[in-house]
Amino acid sequence: MSAGPPAHATVLVVEDDPGMSRFLRDCLADAGHRVSLAQDGQAALQELGRRHVDLLILDLGLPDLDGMALIQTIREWEASPLILVVSARGQDSDKVAALRAGADDYLAKPFSLQELLARVEARLRRLTRAGEEPVMISASLRLDLAASQVVRDGVPVRLTPMEQGVLRELLRHRGRVRTHREILAAVWGPAFTAEHTYVRTIVQRLRLKLEADPAHPRWLTTVPGVGYLWQDSLTVEAEGQPPR
Ligand code: CA
Q1: Ligand 1 centroid, distance to 6 Cα (angstroms)
Q2: Cα of 153 to ligand 1 centre, how many Å?
Q3: 180: CA distance to ligand 1 center in Å?
Q4: Domains of the chain
Q5: CA spacing 20 to 30 A to 65: which of 43, 122, 158, 167?
Q6: Which residues in the chain belong to E strands, given as ranges?
Q7: Rounded to the nearest whole angstrom, what is the distance from the C-alpha of residue 85 to the centroid of ligand 1?
Q8: What pLDDT is recorded for position 197?
Q9: What are the residues whose beta carbons fall under 8 Å from the beta carbon of 162, sequence distance 6 or more?
């Protein structure tokens, strides 16, 4: 991945005030980010389950649940996304409580546009440095190969080095097919490109460890006669529902 702030981060704005929500969306979109909106906590959780989000911008005062509870829920099942709180609650005690609950940053309303964008950029720059290896997150599955962490339904999963190698190769090219030969060459080495059973065995083991239904994999799919494909979460989502 490139150094410097990512030009096209995926940002989810969780805010029930339509004017503020539109303002944030327009500013962030102008700065080059992909922005989606959620008007309450439930919509935010659904959105986070459907797609990878780099940064969450969160208003604490939501109609259905308290933003603090939302932070705690998100932090229970994954370490990402980054969470930037924007709140009318400007007391130091509010800030401390939000940061303790797992927020990464806190901006009191009213705030200036420059300050918001500077905070967002600073947060995303840190994310880029940390994210040199593929990180894939859904509601039930978190894969962070740089940290050698795989968590399914909140439970850490142990992978062998070869399983990690195959997973890394597929994740690096997620959304695109990798042939048996390409996977073998990348993980075992160029002398092993005929050993298709190696790949098949590892893929079966990965499915047992990572898929909710290994017989009908959602993520690690077979392309018959060609190889394997790790489904991009955005592709999976696009088949169900149009992006906002
Ligand atoms: Ca609010």
Answers
A1: 28
A2: 30
A3: 51
A4: 10-127 (3.40.50.2300), 136-236 (1.10.10.10)
A5: 122
A6: 10-14, 34-38, 55-59, 82-87, 105-108, 135-137, 141-144, 149-152, 155-156, 177-179, 220-223, 227-230
A7: 11
A8: 87
A9: 187, 188, 202
pLDDT of residue 233: 64
**Separation of alpha carbons 109 and 87, rounded Å:** 5
Listed as ranges, residues in the chain with pLDDT below 70 are 1-7, 77-80, 125-134, 147, 233-244
Torsion sign across C-alpha atoms 123, 70, 43, 242: positive
Q: pTM for this one?
A: 0.53
Report how far ligand 1's centroid is from the alpha carbon of 54 (Å).
22
Q: Ligand 1 mean position to 60 CA, how many Å?
A: 6
Residues bordering ligand 1, an ion, CB closer than 5 Å: 16, 59, 61
CA 17 to ligand 1 centroid distance, Å: 6
Instruction: Please give the Cα distance from 78 to 207 (Å, whole number).
Output: 20
